[in-house]
Design goal:
- Belongs to the IAA-amido conjugating enzyme family.
- Keywords: Ligase.
- This is GH3 auxin-responsive promoter.
- This protein is an alpha+beta fold.
- It is built from 20 helices and 23 strands.
- Strands 9, 10, 11, 12, 13, 14, 15, 16 and 17 form a nine-stranded antiparallel β-sheet that branches.
- Helix 1 crosses helix 6 and helix 11 packs across helix 13.
- It is globular, with a radius of gyration of 25 Å.
- The protein binds adenosine monophosphate.
- Adenosine monophosphate binds next to strand 9, strand 16 and strand 17.
């Protein structure tokens, strides 16, 4: 979101100054952040139980347990159901952030005015200051920043639960910011229908094509998906520009009004766009359509790494700026070398955003770290906690080269909370450490903000395979991967089947297989379904492989050094070679027809 802040020259200078200041005094600032949190909140029901009202940092570390969402969920539920939020934090909460989670319901994380109006705004100011320092002319011209509000729900307490980005879009400063330096009218961002929203944001971006200096979105997957949408809809968009009329199916009144203000008949522009779009190959289309674009602005590390190749194709190799690392729970750090390739990006932690601790984790020896989707390396990374009793270390005490799981204590009511992200310390800027994002703990499949764990997938497979029993079939092996070779990407699940008599399967009933796909989707998380509904994830696929395929997979892993005795087919495969072994043995492909 490097482009969200409407800033003057002095703001950029101040941003860099604050950054230098806080990173130089990381230790002192961390101590102060923790002290403030304890002073404000030691009287809450939650902390009183561990600290007895004392404001003592040592006691905090000794007594307050390190927790996961499941541990604190009862508190979130109580607040969502109407109990006062001061059972958890002193500052009044203004709502909840709805965060993606693997399985079940979305997580509810308390949000406060301080988070959105102060912390988030400062975080974006510093991010934009760094980008401006590295990208000449970044502050001039307009930005296309594709933004899509997500559905919000009202909890029984009356407090709204929405995604961080939707909360920010709804904040007071945002509309003004957008109108001044972004092509997308605020109404198109707030439109609840993502297809209409995407169409109108593209239309506005094309109308302003000669002023655009950057194109982005929160995540790289959204940029790629929007360009793909353009590939499918460019004729209609050009026709709208030629005639000056927005298509009739755009029936959101906000979108129609906003577009009517900027859309005038412009046959010349429509013709130039058509000439570009009708080209057979869309390689480099972004630079052709928006010739002044200097960079792509979107998170491109971790799970988003799988979209770098597709984006490079469309952009013709424009730099990708992966600006920051943040979550609903806390804002962590920003990328001080924004022009680095995504695979080389580290994020410098900002010590004033939260109190950070790090649990050391071990990575299996001899394996290469996989930062970007399907790896070229032989094995994906496997991390495990060094020892359950390992003490977490403070921010300034991390060791470069070591892997950690990040734990946060925030002013919004999270105390020693495991975020679930694995990071590797890479160095320091002044006295603040820098980290590469390694992986989301326990998540095996992810296309966008969806996070599916191994147990979620197993549960989905278990539910679906119940349909096999009545037709005398057995599932004898399964695995999966996130297939992003086409946009939008989808979950591909390999199944090896046999008859109950032990014979090869001669014929499959397509109806049953399609139903199996649908049952699996039904079983997946709420966030998965939201993204399916928006067509940000395509239909789940079952690929039936011929008999012996999973033996071939085992042979491959054993040839790569896996122990035959301990071998267990992985629920998710991450290397190109392993995916190819199963893909080359596919005998049938079935897709879910479930509508969301
Ligand atoms: P949510 O709270 O649903 O917005 O998701 C936040 C999660 O997205 C983080 O905990 C990370 O797992 C992931 N994430 C956020 N920023 C980055 C980044 N820069 N690189 C990789 N993953 C990220």
């Amino acid at each position: 979101m490097a482009g969200l802040v409407n800033m003057k020259a002095k703001d950029y200078e101040d941003g860099l100054k604050i950054l230098e200041d806080i990173t130089s005094n990381a230790h002192e600032i961390q101590e102060k952040v923790l002290e403030d949190i304890l002073r404000r909140n030691s009287g809450t029901e939650y902390l009183k139980g561990f600290l007895n009202g004392q404001i003592d940092k040592q006691l905090f570390k000794k007594n307050v347990p390190i927790v996961t969402y499941e541990d604190i969920k009862p508190y979130m539920d109580r607040i969502a159901n109407g109990e006062p939020s001061n059972i958890l934090l002193a500052e009044p909460i203004t709502g909840f952030f709805r965060s993606g989670t693997s399985g079940g319901q979305a997580k509810l994380i308390p949000s406060t005015a301080e988070f959105i109006l102060e912390k988030f705004a400062l975080f974006l100011t510093m991010t934009a200051s760094v980008v401006k320092k590295h990208v000449h002319g970044f502050e001039h011209g307009k930005r296309i920043y594709f933004m899509f509000g997500k559905p919000e729900i009202e909890t029984p307490s009356g407090l709204m639960a929405r995604s961080v980005s939707t909360s920010y879009f709804k904040s007071i400063n945002f509309a003004k910011t957008v109108s001044e330096n972004h092509t997308n009218p605020i109404e198109t961002v707030l439109c609840p229908d993502s297809k209409q929203s995407m169409f109108c944001q593209l239309l506005a971006g094309l109308i302003h094509r000669d002023e655009v200096v950057s194109i982005g979105s929160f995540s790289l997957s959204a940029v790629v998906r929007t360009i793909k949408f353009l590939e499918d809809h460019w004729k209609e968009l050009c026709f709208n520009i030629e005639t000056g009329h927005v298509s009739d199916w755009i029936n959101d009144s906000g979108c129609r009004t906003a577009m009517s203000l900027i859309l005038k008949p412009d046959p010349k522009l429509a013709n130039s766009l058509e000439m570009i779009c009708c080209s057979k190959s869309w390689e480099g289309i972004i630079q052709k359509l928006w010739p002044k674009t200097k960079f792509i602005d979107a998170i491109a590390t971790g799970g988003m790494g799988q979209y770098v190749t597709a984006l490079n194709f469309y952009s013709g190799g424009l730099p990708i700026v992966s600006p920051f690392y943040a979550s609903s729970e806390a804002l962590f750090g920003i990328n001080l070398e924004p022009l680095n390739k995504p695979s080389d990006v580290s994020y410098t932690f900002l010590p004033n955003m939260a109190y950070f601790e790090f649990i050391p984790v071990e990575k299996d020896d001899g394996e290469e770290v996989q930062f970007n989707g399907v790896s070229d390396q032989e094995h994906p990374i496997e991390t495990k906690h060094k020892d359950e009793d390992t003490e977490p270390v403070d921010l300034v005490n991390v060791t470069p080269g070591q892997y950690y799981e990040v734990v946060v204590t925030t002013s919004s009511g999270l105390y020693r909370y495991r975020v679930g992200d694995i990071l590797m310390a890479t160095g320091f800027h002044n006295n603040s450490p820098q980290f590469q994002f390694v992986e989301r703990k326990n998540v095996i499949l992810s296309i966008d903000a969806d996070k599916t764990s191994e147990s979620d997938l197993i549960k989905a497979v278990e539910e679906a395979k119940a349909l096999l029993d009545p037709v005398d079939l057995l599932l004898i092996g399964f695995s999966s991967y996130a297939d992003t070779s086409s946009i939008p990407g989808h979950y591909a699940v390999f199944w090896e089947l046999k008859t109950k008599q032990g014979d090869d399967v001669k014929e499959l009933d397509p109806e049953i297989m399609v139903q199996c796909c649908s049952i699996m989707e039904e079983s997946l998380s709420y966030i998965y379904k939201v993204y399916r509904k928006e067509n940000a994830i395509a239909a789940l696929e079952i690929r039936v492989v011929k008999n012996g395929s999973f033996d071939a997979l085992m042979d491959y892993f054993v040839s790569q050094g896996a122990s035959m005795n301990q071998y267990k087919a992985p629920s998710c495969i991450k290397t190109k070679e392993a995916v190819e072994i199963l893909n080359s043995r596919v005998t049938g492909r079935f897709f879910s027809q479930k509508t969301f």
